[in-house]
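Tutorial sheet, problem 5. The three components below are modelled jointly, 674 residues in total.
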Amino acid sequence: MRIALLITGLAGICMLSACSSMGVEPWERDILAKEEMQLTTDAVEAATDDHIYFSKEASSGGRGFGGGGCGCN
Amino acid sequence: MSTKDKPAITAALAAATCALLGSTVAEPVQAQEEPGWDFNTALLYYGEDDDRVQDLSLSVLSRLTLVDDRFLSLGLTLDGLTGASPNGALPQSVAQTFTRPSGKKTYTTQAGEQPLDDTFLDTRVAITANWQQPLGRLYLINAGLSASKEFDYLHLGLNARISRDFNKRNTTLSAGFAISQDEVDPIGGTPTGLTEMLPSSGDDDDDDEGRRKGPAENKDGLDIVLGLTQVLSRDLLLQVNYSYSDASGYLTDPFKILSVVDGVTGDAVPVAPIPGVDGPSHLYYFEHRPDSRTKHSLYTQAKYYMNGKVLDASYRYMTDDWEIDSHTLDLRLRLPLRGGHYVEPHLRMYTQTAADFYRLSLTDGEALPEYASADYRLGDFDAITAGLKYGWKTGGGNDMHLRLELYKQSGNVSPDQLIGNQVGRDNYPDLNAIIFQFGYQFGK
Amino acid sequence: MDTVLRCGKTASLLVTISVLLLQAETVSADDPIDTSAYEGKVVIVDFWASWCVPCRRSFPWLNTMHDRYGEDGLVIIGVNLDQERAAADEFLQEFPPRFSIHYDETKEMAKAYGVVAMPTSYLIGRDGEIRKTHYGFKVKKQNEYESAIVEAISESE
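Model answer (structure tokens):
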């Protein structure tokens, strides 16, 4: 639990400082805009696998939401 | 065999329908340009060896794109399950008879075989609805509903997420939650944990008296996910998520049992047969799990573009208050071929430690623990998946793919857990399964 | 959030840079650009790329604006920020523009303007000052974008 909190805290700090210097210009997102570069490329396949492994193992989920991609609009 | 003799899926399997944030239902936003519908469909076959579970499912995810990056997604999944599942009892050098969950008939496992409850037949219907839209320029919001029904299980869920971009959209922070309310209503009623499996009634009357089985039970869930996505370079994307999950209520599997064994020989304790009544051949107790479970997960994923090839690597660490720790490493490498085709090998490695109340069997004469389960899914095991996906575009420009995966699960039973004759027997029901999927996406 | 007013000096500088860059490296569908063509005109400088979905949505609208207000002194310049020319050309085949296109290969123009989103369009008045900056392209805001153009056109120098 403490480790999880620590990492979450670090993520917050990262956003404020280090992450602000990382990244690319808005016009350099051509590769990130590709379909195969999205974090979830196939929602049905991801949901199917999650269901299978949830049924056979004691762990589940983890995936997140948002980010990456073309960054448009 | 009447339908009443066919118990539905165990609670654990059924609970897979809960609105876990991990199983995203919204398609990635990139593809659709003009308002309209697009569809993602898949037909899946899952089959375990040794006459165990087989599942055939059809999934359809339809998405309506509206002006200015707004999406409505509607998903439908139909599952048909058949086959047998380990009931938690240990294999013996003699035949064993068990009472079916309905309480009306019995089934027998041959000597030396893994006891499997073979009265397995169920269909499941799951639906999801999801709305996504931007909020202002930098926020994205998403809200959804989920529901599923099978013979003895009902799930209802609600979820919502929000994300905000920073640093010229190189950084995204997101937060989301999901709540669920499930109801388990097993055939024959819910057995009281750590009580004996009783003989069958032998008739078709609805008579649950004296079976120590209770009414339907509830299970509530709360999931929270916090995420950070960071663009590291033109071809490298990273995501880190922390998840908190809390389940409370009836978490026991109503169909799983434990063998009661002799403290010296390690063999199951036989039960004296009652004339004219079919019943268990040995002493078996229903399992009992705690009524709450708290999980923490840390998940990280990277996508790396290498001159047309894409590497998708993810790692998840999970720990909970049942003392289960797990590690998951998932690697996919997409290799483009000519003409828009691609091939994607996949490797997944998984390991988990056992729940603190997991045990192979109960020992005759010892005091009963508060919680106990022999469900292999809570045991100490390693698993590996190796697969290959092949994708192409149809003449009309639509995506199709075929996926074949092999899943192997091997238990780690340490010698100090074994008593007497258990040494030398195959006590843990290793799993070997094949996954075959055909996918078709159209309308984009 | 979508509109930012910049101070006059910076705007004039940017327009000057644009004009110089356009003079130096123009490869547009039209004849070589004449600087005098921009004096007293309302100019939209629109930064786009082939992989940007909202950019695809904006092209038909930009064509409409070009048709509607071109005679009243509106000039639209679509500045391409693709990494590869071939991708841009393929896009232009699918969405042929009636306005001029400039390829900002070195990305100097994008940096000079401080582009932070794709697409971004700058509405420059007849006096050379930036009137409005629009980040992204929203179909629902088309009327708002158009009103800004009308306002800029109706201004006398």
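Marking note: DSSP finds one helix and 23 strands in chain B. Full credit if you identified this.
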